[in-house]
Every structure is written in C-alpha cells, then in structure tokens.
Amino acid sequence: MKAILDHIGIAVQDLDAALAFYRDALGLEVEASEDIGSQRVRAHFLSVGESSSQTRPDSGPKLELLEATAPDSPIARYLEKRGPGIHHITLRVDDIAAALTQLKARGVRLVNEEPRAGAEGALVAFIHPSSAHGVLVELKQSGAGEAGRAGGAGGAATAGAEDTRVVHARYAVGDLELISLHDGFFRLDGGAMFGIVPKPLWERKVRSDHRNRIRLAMRPLVVRGVRTLMIDAGIGDQGDAKFRDIYGVDRNRNLDHTLADAGLSPDAIDIVLATHLHFDHAGGFTRRDAAGRRRPRFPRARYVVRRGEWEDALHTHERNRASYLTDGLLPLAEAGVLEMVDDDQTIMPGVRVRRTGGHTMHHQAVWIESKGQYAAYVGDIMPTTAHLGAAWIMGIDLYPVETLAAKQLFVREAEARNALVFFSHDPTIPAGRIRQHEGRPIVVPA
After folding, report:
1. ∠ CA(264), CA(265), CA(270), 5° rounding?
2. Which residues are registered as beta bridge partners of 89?
3. Which of 106, 134, 256, 330 is most buried, most CB within 10 Å of its CB?
4. Which of the four CATH numbers 3.30.70.1230, 3.40.50.720, 1.10.10.10, 3.10.180.10 does domain 4-142 have?
C-alpha cells in the first residue's frame, strides 16, 4: 500500500469568515462544494496545487472546509467540544479494501472496518486517532465523481465506487412497510435544476460535471400494506445511445437489482402509482419484450395516473416535449391496465394522492399514513434535499409560482406531522425528516 496526501479537513464555525481568509486573503480557488447527507456536513474544497483548472481534480492536495448542516452532526459536536481547526487528514489509496485488510493485520484500530460512501463519489474509511498518534486519518479511494470531473464518460460509475449507494432501504410507518428502491443515476443541467438560484450558490450544495450536469438518483418507493404499491418506476430501458449520453444514464445497478435485493419480483406489485409521467419517473412502467415490443413491466399491476397528466403527456408542446416519451406509455392503455383519477383520493388504505401542480399542471404528491404516523413522497416539487429552500425551484417547472406555494405548504405539514419525506432524485439521501435550525428548515436524514 502506498498512500499519498489528498486533502486536509478543517472544521469551520463560520464559513463566510473562513472563506474570507482562505479564498479572499490567500487567493485559493474554491473548486467545488458538496453536501454529504449521511454525515450532515457540507464540504467545500479549495485547491492548493498549481493550475488546478488544467489538471486532474485529484492530481494535487486540497483543503476541505467542513460546515455542519445539522446540530447533531459529527462536525457540529466536534466544533462544540474543540472549536474550529484541523479535523482530519485524508490519504488517497488505490484499493481501500486491501488497505484496511493490511492495517487490521497490523493491529491498527479502525473507526470504519468497511468502506462507506464519502464526498466526490469516493469510498472512505477512518483510522482511529489512537493508532495514528493523535491524528484522525481518513483513507480514500477515488470514485466516479472525480472521474466525471476529469472528463470521463458522463461521470459513469467506476467499478464498485457507487454500489455502496445503490441499495434498498426499509422503513416502518405504522402498519405499513416502505421500501426505497433505486433505478440508477442520470444527469441534468445544474442551471435547469435550480432555476433562478445562481451557480455560486447551488454549487455549494452539489457539484456539476464538465458539461454542467449534476448527478441525480431515481428512487421509486414501494408501500406494502393490504396491497403492494409502487410509486414511480425510474427511467427503465428507455432511450437510445444518444439519449443515454445526453442524460448521463447509469443503470449498472437498477430497479431489477434493488427489487430482487428487497425480496420482490415484478409480479408482486399490485398497483403502480405515478406522481407524473416524465421519462425519469414513468419510463420504467413498460419494457421491451424479446420481440422488441413494449409491454407493461409489472404484469399484475393496475397503473394509476392523473387524467390531466395523461392528456398532457399525449399532447405535448415545445416546452414539455422532451420530458415525455409517449411510446413507453401507450402500451398501458393498449393493455387495459390504465386507471385514471381526477381528484385527490385514497388509492389504497393509508395511501392518498394530492395534486400539487407546479412541476406539471397535474403533478401529485403521495401522502402515507398509518396509526398516526406519516410519510410523504413529494416527487419533483422537492426532488432533492438541496431543493428544500422555498426559492430553490427547478427552471423546468412549468408553473414555478405554484411550486412555491405547494412547497411552502408541504414543508409546514411535513414538519408538523413529523413525516418521513422521500426524495425521488437525491443521490445520497433516500429519506429524512424536516426540522427547523436557526430559523430555517433542514433535512435530518432518516
């Protein structure tokens, strides 16, 4: 094993003051910022190498300013106990699993005996300070995020680097079991995803690739009660090679895998419920058979869709045409499995739809309730945790002011009900609860 310095992590109490020193006074370039949801921290990377914009992003050491995003995060506790300062050093290795095995054989005490997902799409693990002479040492194996920024093919996953995130997760809400699944990743333009929010602000939360696209997950949700219901179904096998390149589609691990991991098969799904019919939510409703014809993907299911959304999908215009792939929708009507709803209503006991509008005219959120406990699948009104703020609205929303009102109402209700909120596109956080922190809402990952 040969380890080289990757970066030094610095816990900061006041980010603006820290940037005033490192960026403004010392002239260091802020390379990117990224939320690490599992650790409730925001990492801001500053290059300290030469000509950083012309070299590989991982070619030289960096500083990492660590800002807590929740009062109970490890960085927040560190700051409370020790104040701002150097938190850890990170050493990059080629094979983190082999490195951990070697260290364990030498009796080195580890904080993480198995790698976990870290910033920049990397795999990381920490060595306990007692074995590193008082220093918290992080080992890092570079991942897909860095390959994409270096000009890789759309930021597609490198072997093993993303599999730690492509897993199903189970939750209980009263008598209902909720299973968050995964249909892989795709990419959309960062400006389109954040609308009027300027890039210097949104890139503090999420980083873009060399084509200005940000990485998004596709997270269908299964609700198991008196029936088994699936909300949305990802992108499926839609699109040709050009389509997959434009959108950076990465389905090396997809809905078929996570369904199987959760012990489910397509035959187990009784109801498929659409928040709306954009290709990244409804593309997986059908699939090609051996003869190349598209057929319903879930053979026993009825597909529940808002009537107005169906009409909009079949009668597109220049503003929304790219978002709908009607060839993958029409087989549902032809097979007689399509069920239209016109109003807010209960789809099965404990599962109710509510029209939000905004993203599309007939976009709907799904509220789930059992024994006084609540969950919600908010769809594209709040696709990621970065969209929690009221003004953080996608530029591709057809009715953004309606989105604003729907988000404000949803945040109030979700907080009041202590609801478990599922995010359809967040690349790292499947679900969390909305809390208030210093007068603004935050998401505490579940």
Report:
1. 90
2. 8, 137
3. 256
4. 3.10.180.10
Q: Could you say which DSSP state residue 278 is in? A: -
User: How many Å from the N-terminal Cα to the C-terminal Cα in the chain?
Assistant: 36
3-state secondary structure string across 130-154: HHCCCCCEEEEECCHHHHHHCCCCC
User: Could you tell me which of 1, 11, 206, 205 has the C-alpha nearest to residue 89?
Assistant: 11
Q: Is the pLDDT assigned to residue 143 strictly greater than 90?
A: no
Element (H, E) at 445: strand 440-445
Residue pLDDT, tens place only, 236-264: 999 899 999 999 999 988 999 999 989 99
Q: What is the pLDDT of residues 389-410, one digit of tens each?
A: 999 999 999 999 999 999 999 9
Q: What is the pTM of this model?
A: 0.68
Show the tokens assigned to 229: 């219901």
Task: Check if CATH label 3.60.15.10 holds for domain 157-445.
Answer: yes
**Are the C-beta atoms of 77 and 71 separated by less than 8 Å?**
no
Instruction: Supply 296's token pair.
Output: 């319903």
Six-digit token string for 391: 């003004």
- Region at 383 (left for phi over 0; alpha for psi -120 to 50; beta for the rest): alpha
